[in-house]
């Protein structure tokens, strides 16, 4: 390849062009990855739930699984961004830097080759000029010799002409000898430089170009590997994302979702009771049997039937269209089960607020102690208003908790009572063939049936849910008031210092104890205001 300098020039240029072409390919692949990740994130953002923290929708397992899949897909999009970043840093950036260095190195090697070629051409020109000069001097010397020989053989020529021709011959011969020596020296120098050019300089330059091209090839190989490694590095994390999606799919529980629907929509009301049979043929039977009819009894029975039907119809709205009304504080406008859930949620919220206020009170007390020990840090009196306000908030929250717990106990008691009534009704409900008398005795005689006195049987659905068993709670101990208490709030019991009260319910951890006076008046008093003495085995009693 000693004479293929131009072809090597073209080949190295093609190698750099190919390197830049691959760098362009990697850049477009990076843009594809970035756009793909961006579109995935936009898709996740579009379908992610946009619910407020107070949203109380039931979390179905199918919805939770879908949200988990969206989270995994968001992580998957992040891994695509990692691939793009790794390719940009490890492959594309490296290719662009190496391409710049490669161009600089190639330019330097080609310049060295051109300089060596130019130097060889200069040596050849010098040798060629000395050759031509030597050739010219030899021809002049031959002419001078021929002129000398002609004059020497001419008898008419003078001795001076012959001597002059001889001198001219000697001069030309001397100049030819000098040019011969010069040509020989230039020829020897050119041959040496040409040997050096083709056996030392050019091979060295070609070797450098070869090493450069091989490094380019190696760099491409490394970039090919880095291109694949960028993808392979994230495969474990992508696999975890896919496994997370599979686990989310397996977590779907159709029975749990059905139970959530039941818990969300169940009202706690009983199904409507059976409509009573209205026997309009009684007038006919009575007329046939005795020829007379008792108008008061007939009216009384008819009124009773209408009343029963009206009460049965009054319950249908619970399972049909619910009448609209203002939301009440005790949620009494809601069905029992929903009311119980709402009250329980409110109690939990109030307990959380009470815990916050308690923590704040403890912090203020600690800060006050620090100020009292180190007055330079602050004035202890400046914390008293905030401490008083916190104590007031705690009392208010405790009263709210007691009030809501009372409502909750009322609801739970009604639900339990309704369940007992329904169970009792199911046991006592007998299906018979024939006629049943108002007293419940079976008879086949129509005359006996119409002459029996009318009895009003109350259906389970006719009981008013507001009637409860109000038996007083037994006393489990007694207490003595250490401090007076005003008891302005609802549900509290005012007391004087030194007053003796009965304890009917212990403190449940909220700072209030339920007490009763001798006259039967009941209410809650602060536990810290009384000295409690409980009876032995009071809990068992």
TrEMBL record:
Entry keyword Transcription regulation: no
Membrane topology type: Peripheral membrane protein
Chain ranges of the SH3 domain: 474-535
Span of domain REM-1: 333-410
F-BAR domain sequence ranges: 1-257
Acidic residues bias locations: 463-472
Residue spans of biased composition, Basic and acidic residues class: 416-426
Gene Ontology biological-process annotations: autophagy; endocytosis; signal transduction
Residues of the signal peptide: none
Keyword entries, A-Z: Autophagy, Cell membrane, Coiled coil, Cytoplasm, Cytoplasmic vesicle, Cytoskeleton, Endocytosis, Lipid-binding, Membrane, SH3 domain
Entry-linked Gene3D superfamilies: 6.10.140.470, Arfaptin homology (AH) domain/BAR domain, SH3 Domains
Coiled-coil positions: 124-168, 340-374
Keyword Nucleotidyltransferase (UniProt): no
Subcellular location(s) of the protein: Cell membrane; Cytoplasm, Cell cortex; Cytoplasm, Cytoskeleton; Cytoplasmic vesicle
Domain of life where this protein originates: Eukaryota
GO molecular function terms attached to this record: lipid binding
GO cellular component: cell cortex; cytoplasmic vesicle; cytoskeleton; plasma membrane
Annotated segments matching region Disordered: 416-475
Family classification: Belongs to the FNBP1 family.
Name this protein carries in UniProt: Formin-binding protein 1-like
